[in-house]
Amino acid sequence: MPRQKKYKQHRKIRFKVKTAKPKLNRFFAKAIFLIILFISLMFMWRISDGFFKSSQFFKVSKIDLVMNPFLKEALYIDFYGIPRGVNIFELDIDSIGHNTKKRHPEFKSVIIARRLPNIINVRILYKEPVVCLKSGSRLLPVSVDGVILPVETAQGKNLPILTGLSFQPHNTKAGFVCSDKKLFLGIKFASLAQSWWLIKGHRINLISLEDTSNISMFLENGIEIKMGDGNNLKAKLATLKKIMERQAFDLNKIAYLDLRFSDAVIGPKPLDEKKRSQLTGR
User: Fold this and answer.
1) 3-state percent helix, strand, coil for the chain, nearest multiple of 5
2) Which residue of 33, 98, 187, 248 is most buried, as measured by CB atoms within 10 A?
3) What is the pLDDT of residues 39-73, one digit of tens each?
4) What are phi and psi of 185, to 5 degrees?
């Protein structure tokens, strides 16, 4: 047999290179669509914005107020510096709340919100009183930063009364900021004493600041506690607690407790003439 030559067959593999179709037309179509959409939205927004701001329907006509004690003047828009006939969407409610609080230091917070179509919701909280000042026959609640508060804020609270301070009649109005150093000393003293007070069944009724180097506290039963200048207050209150919790300690016979020295001095009440004569036989 004739010799056959073997030939290697080579397959020719052809790769078809796909040429990218131009997407330019598709890109321009999307861009034009987005531009038209943006212009339409801006046009609609301008029309609606103009309608809301020019419509009589959205002019502020009422204040819905929540506060205790209630202040009648706060029902009027003039109280907040809001122009009459202003559109509700043109109000900067954050600035209005901030400025109102600044004008009235007795307020702890002023929260303002819109309620469509034309009502402003206002929620006002007063600061908390920590002491009361005695001014004649009146008791004036005072906050920790020395602001006089409405009398109603102290209702139902047994706050220490500070004496030894004098105020002019015009200084007793709610919102007046006191700057007396003696007052802030009394507030600090009262706040610390209240925070460290652990004597059950008794409370601080009055703090005398006549002489700030010899401060006296008076309990609800009238017993005077002589504290000195207020140094080592926590230790003195601990000593007071030990004395008053003794089983044999009769508060009805005590006039004062002097804690100004290392050893407390207990002062008995003076006997009236009848009891003295019974004891002495005279």
Assistant:
1) 35, 25, 40
2) 187
3) 777 766 665 555 556 678 889 989 999 999 999 99
4) -65, -45
- Is residue 35 a part of any domain in this protein? no
Q: Is the dihedral of CA 202, 204, 205, 208 positive or negative?
A: positive
User: Does the pTM exceed 0.85?
Assistant: no
Could you write out the DSSP letters of every residue in 159-219?
PPEEES----GGGGSTT-B---HHHHHHHHHHHHHHHT---TT--EEEEE-SSTTSEEEEE
Q: Are 106 and 132 in contact (CB under 8 A)?
A: no
Please report, for the chain, how many H helices and E strands are present, in that order.
5, 11
User: 37: helix, coil or strand?
Assistant: helix
The CATH number linked to 225 is 3.40.50.11690
What lies within 8 Å, CB to CB, of 209 at 6+ separation is: 162, 163, 164, 165, 182, 185, 186, 215
Q: Which domain holds residue 81?
A: 56-126
Tens of pLDDT, residue by residue over 106-139, are 999 999 999 988 999 999 999 999 999 977 788 9
Question: What CATH number should be reported for the domain holding residue 81?
Answer: 3.10.20.310
